[in-house]
Amino acid sequence: MLGVGVAAAALVALAPAAQTAPQQQVLPGCSPAAPGQPNGKQWPAEPALTIDPAAAYTATLETTCGTVELELDAAAAPRTVNSFAFLAGEGYFDHTRCHRLTTEGIFVLQCGDPTATGLGGPGYKFGDENLAGAVYPAGTVAMANAGPGTNGSQFFLVYRDSTLPPNYTPFGRVVSGMDALTTIANGGVAGGGSDGTPLAEVALDRVSTAAN
Prior knowledge:
By secondary structure, this protein is an alpha+beta fold. The chain has three helices and ten strands; from the N terminus they run H-E-E-H-E-E-E-E-E-E-H-E-E. Residues 66-209 form the PPIase cyclophilin-type domain.
């Protein structure tokens, strides 16, 4: 089991970092990706705040291994939820691939990069939120980053309780679809190891948000 120091060091890779792409598979319980390519849109600045921080928001991730439903915390992370909803509305996440799976020490599936390299983003960055006392139990949805104030489009889903330093903005939780994450995690990392491209070919066919 990784100690806290090792786990923290491993989190450098939760920031955008180059990834190779070994051969992936359509695992049992999963489907081939829907036809289409990421639109790769870019913006010069963070979108203006248009959500209501007092409202309830949800997100639906239609993945190749099942649908994952999220409850978003606009009150605690309004800029993050606003950006996520903006990007989803622009179709930015559609047809993107979840490029990173970790299976030791920290247990996350990382998504949101249209290049599937760990280097991609929407062209803007924004500050951290909701870090005081942040913890990352199974079901947490949080932003990946390259250091303070570098949030973009990449996010991660925690599929098993993980001990992370409070450096990654939590902005929601999984309310349905943990079985899909379990399927992906059980497939392991392509080529072996505990950190890299998932063996499962995981694509976000469509991502949408709604105010409730």
